Structure to design on (74 residues):
């Protein structure tokens, strides 16, 4: 699985975090030096690899189309 957008983000000035966020038992977040790009909640029975693939796509949507996903705060 190629996660090109995640790789570009962390090779630059960005970061990803995977783990508990408040009451959410498993979340994946991505941010660059200026803003949060995506905050995803792992779906029931979602394979971990699928969560990473969704995060990779969400990063692309944020960078290319200014579409920011926030599944944690609604």
């Amino acid at each position: 699985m190629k996660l090109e957008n995640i790789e570009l983000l962390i090779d630059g000035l960005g970061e990803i975090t995977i783990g508990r966020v408040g009451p959410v038992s498993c979340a994946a977040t991505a941010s660059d030096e200026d803003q949060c790009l995506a905050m995803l909640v792992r779906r029931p029975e979602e394979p971990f690899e699928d969560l990473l693939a969704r995060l990779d796509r969400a990063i692309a949507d944020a960078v290319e189309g200014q579409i920011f996903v926030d599944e944690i705060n609604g």
Q: What stands out?
A: Residues 48-65 form the longest helix (18 residues). The two ends are 29 Å apart (CA to CA). The first strand starts at residue 15 and ends at 21. Strands lie at 15-21, 24-31, 36-41, 69-70.
